[in-house]
Design brief:
It contains 6 helices and 9 strands. The protein has a single domain, classed as 3-Layer(aba) Sandwich (Rossmann fold). The longest helix has 23 residues, at 21-43. It is α/β, with parallel strands linked by helices. Mean pLDDT is 94; it is low at 1-6. The two termini are 16 Å apart. Helix 1 (21-43) crosses helix 2 and helix 2 runs parallel beside helix 3 (98-110). It binds 6-phosphogluconic acid. 6-phosphogluconic acid binds next to helix 2. Keywords: Hydrolase. Its EC number is 3.1.1.31. This is 6-phosphogluconolactonase.
């Protein structure tokens, strides 16, 4: 990974490769349950930042399955705060909302209390625009953090990655890659829908653990470039890390262009 001023403390990324996307989603679901249960054992509550995308949503479906069976680690879903890494600024209930996918895949089934589900605002929620909605989300994060801090503890922050290396709604070469606010409004997004809200780098890298969930040959080049130290302006995934751990959770196709030692 590249290092830049202030980045010296970033943990060495951990690269885990599973044979295929389904196995990857199952293994990540088991790891997520274990991590949230461990966080609850220490802190009494846990927090997770969700992502949209195919793998991210498949993980949530597997977590819902695990919640329905007796497993070693149990998560008390009434004591989990749920945040989002990004959201499409479209009306509530729109099929494009990451919130909707997460509710259908997991949240409705396990019964996370409404006050712990911190969805980013929908476009019909009464805000003047995504800028105002982003500021509101920053305010919600600060309120949860307390003590004058701007961000609460995130135990695990999940991210998908696009084939060009975008994470959350931080796309290569866009203003969001240089924005140092915890939450940013995104307009003219290269991938539709064009208007979004996203956590910025300072919020993402504040997480205890950042897990990148990546499958498919189409992501292989970006994975290799990011782990090879590409600049974050060109490949935003290269700029993300957790405080304590950064896990690149890949299927074999996504890992196919990494040097052999990593695979
Ligand atoms: O920005 C979006 O519109 C996408 O939803 C995106 O952020 C997605 O999470 C990644 O592209 C990974 O998606 P997959 O897991 O489906 O590959």
């Amino acid at each position: 990974m590249s290092s830049s001023p202030g980045d010296d403390e970033r943990p060495v990324p951990d690269v885990v490769v599973q044979p295929d996307a389904d196995r990857l989603a199952r293994v990540v679901a088991e790891a997520l349950v274990a991590r949230l249960a461990a966080a609850q054992a220490v802190h009494g509550a846990a927090s997770v930042v969700l992502t949209g995308g195919g793998i991210g949503t498949a993980v949530l479906r597997h977590v819902a399955e695990l919640a329905a069976e007796p497993v070693r680690e149990r998560v008390d879903w009434t004591a989990v705060d749920v945040w989002w890494g990004d959201e499409r600024f479209v009306p509530a209930g729109d099929a494009d909302r990451n919130e909707r996918g997460a509710r259908e895949a997991l949240l409705d089934a396990v019964g996370v209390p409404a006050e712990r589900v911190h969805a980013m605002a929908a476009s019909d929620a009464g805000f003047a625009g995504p800028e105002e909605a982003a500021d509101r989300y920053a305010g919600e994060l600060a309120a949860a953090a307390g003590d004058g801090r701007s961000l609460p503890r995130f135990d695990v922050l999940l991210l998908g990655m696009g084939p060009e290396g975008h994470v959350a709604s931080i796309f290569p070469g866009t203003p969001a890659v240089r924005d140092e606010r915890p939450v940013v409004a995104v307009r003219d997004c290269p991938k539709p829908p064009p208007t979004r809200i996203s956590l910025g780098f300072p919020a993402i890298t504040s997480a205890e653990e950042v897990w990148l969930l990546i499958s498919g040959e189409g992501k292989a080049e970006a994975v290799a470039l990011a782990l090879g130290g590409a600049p974050r302006e060109e490949l935003p995934a290269a700029g993300v890390h957790g405080r304590r751990a950064t896990r690149w959770l890949l299927d074999a196709a996504a890992a196919s262009r990494l040097p052999a030692a990593r695979g």
